[in-house]
Amino acid sequence: MSYKKWSIFFLLFVISLLVFIGVVNYIVDPYDDYNNHFVNTKKIMGVKKIRFIKALKIYRIKPKSIILGNSRAEIGLNPEHGYLTKPSYNMAVSGGSMYENRINFEWALKQGELQQVILVVDYDMFTITKQKPVPEFEKYFHYSYIYRYIFSFDTLIDSFKTIISSTDDFPTWSEYGQLDGGYMQRQLTKMGGHHAVMRYGPPALYKKASIGYVYPDTGNNSFSDFRKLVRLCYENDIKLDIVFSPSHIRQWKIMVDYHHVNYDHWLQWKKDIVLTVNRISNHYHKPPYRVFDFSVYHPFTAEKVPTSPAKKMKYHWENIHYKNALGLIVLDRLNGTSPYKDFGLQLTISNIDKHLREQSTERSIYIDIPAYN
Amino acid sequence: MLFNSYEFIFIFLPFTFFIYFYLNKKRLTEAAKGFLVAASLFFYSWWDILYLPLILSSILFNYILGESISKKSEQQRINKKLLLTIGIVSNVTLLGYYKYSDFFIANINLVTGSEIPLLHLALPLAISFFTFQQIAYLVDSYRGQCKEYDFINYATFVTFFPQLIAGPIVHHKEMMPQFSQAHNMIIKYRNISMGLFIFSIGLFKKVVIADTFAVWSTVGFDKAESLNFIEAWITSLSFTFQIYFDFSAYTDMAIGAALLFNIKLPINFNSPYQATSLIESWKRWHMTLTRFVHAYIFTPIIHSFEKYTFYKGMIALFISMVIIGFWHGASWMFVIFGILHGIGIVTNHIWKKKIGIKLPKILGWFLTFNFINFSVVFFRAKEWDDAIKVLRGMFDISHIVLPASLENHLSCLTHYNIAFGSWLSSIHGNIWTIFWLIGGFILILVFKNTNEKLDNFTPSYNNMFLAGICLIISIMYFDKVSEFIYFNF
């Protein structure tokens, strides 16, 4: 064999095999990167690249309204609710920090159509151990990134999984970014029902959460991301609602066991949010954005936890995550169409202290009730 | 730009190759060299264009200085020496400023209690490599060993992209003539096939082998809070393999990419982990660095002594090894690594010269390999505590954990304080980790290294499929991008 023949055959061999792999991955499109639906329309492997997929969807949909937050908002809030200007998208991501949410917001803003944002804040977003769970997160916002996986070994494996797997094995998302509750229910059943799951409490990573609004891995301040997001909303005439998600009240009971912080720190965080929004609004000489607190003691959040694995709760999956039914009530309340006026209080600098005192009192009432232990 | 990236493999390399040879074919040889310099600077600037002015000024400064030194006659020896001193001091200062400022400030603060703020300078890519190459050029200009070359030749020698970022540390005498030879300006399929072969093997070593070992070493060194006996050994062995496969892979790819342009780079690794003594090991590991340190640090120290003696030679050797350690980075960990190797290599020489008992080869290999395996713990650890964590685990025989599945068969071992349970969980390992380590040993001890494979290369379907599969698998792993360890130095 001559050197010339070797070189030519080598290149032909490599190129033809790579083209074959690329074509398989492109046609099956396991992460919905290329919008191909030739094979198995359920892109069940999307769970592995969900942050990137959501960024891509924003690019394609160019939504007028988005929901930001972490898994609570991702599971609980339906972006197709009438309160959201269409097209809308739930861009909340599991384990998302304020940094990620701020970058996601800027990406949505860059698409040029954004008018409305619901920012569902969670204490964990400000104290989470990693500022960004994916090191190359910022690269997601370059369209060329979709070709990064085209020859990938993992993508090839996922292409085969997409073809052969049942959808029950993996979480799936609605077309508009909300995590499917069916997957949550299957996981809950596997783990022994609501009561069994609630006994686990929050994940162990919460124990490493920081205090002082910094991301422990970088030392960067999470409140600066929050401030920047609010400022950008004012500067771009975006309608912003800031929402404290509902949780089951057991979450506030066990919080002290899992965080470095105590309940007072958590209440102070709410106050800091309200004060910050007020300060920024003064700077822009505009009314403060609405801040709604749904993380309150209320019959919805104090729903009884069934001990029987077969029984389903109406509003909650476990301590942290709430169901679509409760999410709809939250969105109705924001929309001004909810019959439950006592659920969700709009916070201002005038009522924040009183509200927080009341919550402390409520906690002391509920904390020793055996049904919630 | 990384060798293990789509942009390099599919765009930069083919584009540069075709334009370079097209210009040469049109007999625009100077333009071809100019294009190669421009392409190399583009390759360099891909990370951060802010570094571009730095490398350009460094090249210009050293070229002008080298030319001035060369043109001085022997009668102007004082002037020559002054210019050389200025050149060396400037290069070392530049390197010191970017690489070591914060290290010195932090230590001054520690010793004196002062609070001088750190500069937090980003380390310009490849500065350690291009600084060393240019110091060698200046010294040889002083010694009258440099022929005169034009600026474009000099710039090609320094910036040639295959070796720019992490070596091999090339010498102007072996590089600059190659860029001028007419027969190197035409496409040679022999070099192309050999280049593609060694590049593909190198890429596989990096992307598949080194990056796999990197997972366990990274978790073991940086994330695990404590390590049991087996985990600690796997952590250190994983890094020992990782650094070899990572760095030798880079060299393979550099040699391969250079061969496409008919340029032969010096070999940098010759199966170092097969060495049966530390002296031999350093003759096989990062050979171009050893060559540089010998010629431009060890020899001048020797010459500075009035009379050479064996022990003075050992002092020079020890100093050289500490400098090698410190060259790798601004940390006491690298200094400790250098001191350990200085002590080790001096001991090796004393043993050889004064005691003279030749150890059996297997014992020699065992001692050498383990010495390296222990010393790289300091090389890899970011902090003293991390190094101690790994070393403590390696010596803590009271903390041996075996897989829970063996408990029924080996329950008698519990009498010897051996536990059963999560045996590799702290480093995210499993039974495959053991197979990978065994595979690593087989590769370093039994297989021919890539230089030997290249020497014996004859085109065949077997080596074509081998290289092709290596390249394809490597490209399929590109979505897990990682940089080369030596980019940090």
- What does the radius of gyration of chain B come to? 24 Å
How many H/I helices of chain B? Answer: 19
Number of helices of chain A: 13
- N- to C-terminal separation of chain A? 78 Å
Query: What does the main sheet of chain A amount to?
Result: 6 strands, mixed
| Chain-averaged pLDDT of chain B | 90
Major β-sheet of chain B, in short? 2 strands, parallel
Compute the gyration radius of chain A: what is it? 23 Å
Helix content of chain B: 55-70%
Shape of chain B from CA axes? globular
Q: Which oligomerization state do the chains in this entry correspond to?
A: heterodimer
What is the chain-wise order of helices and strands of chain B?
A: HHHHHHHHHHHHHHHHEEHHH
- Residues in helices of chain A, as a percent range: 40-55%
Question: Which spans of chain A of ≥5 residues are poorly predicted at pLDDT below 50?
Answer: none
Q: Strand tally of chain B, please? A: 2
Q: Give the strand content of chain B.
A: under 5%
The largest sheet of chain A has its strands arranged as 2-1-3-4-5-6
Give the strand content of chain A. 5-15%
User: What order do the helices and strands of chain A follow?
Assistant: HHEHEHEHHHHHEHHEHEH
Question: Largest beta sheet of chain B: what is the strand line-up?
Answer: 1-2
Write the layout of secondary structure elements.
The complex is a heterodimer of chains A (373) and B (489).
Chain A: H1 3-28, H2 50-61, E1 65-68, H3 71-76, E2 88-90, H4 98-110, E3 116-121, H5 123-127, H6 153-164, H7 181-190, H8 193-200, H9 222-235, E4 239-244, H10 250-258, H11 263-283, E5 290-293, H12 324-335, E6 345-347, H13 352-366
Parallel strand pairs in A: 1-2, 1-3, 3-4, 4-5
Antiparallel strand pairs in A: 5-6
Helix pairs in contact in A: 1-6, 4-9, 9-11, 11-13
Chain B: H1 6-25, H2 29-45, H3 52-71, H4 77-112, H5 127-142, H6 151-159, H7 161-164, H8 172-180, H9 189-223, H10 229-260, H11 278-284, H12 287-304, H13 310-327, H14 332-355, H15 361-380, H16 384-395, E1 400-403, E2 418-421, H17 431-445, H18 450-455, H19 461-476
Parallel strand pairs in B: 1-2
Helix pairs in contact in B: 1-2, 2-6, 3-4, 3-5, 4-5, 6-8, 9-10, 9-19, 10-15, 10-16, 10-17, 12-13, 13-14, 14-15, 15-16
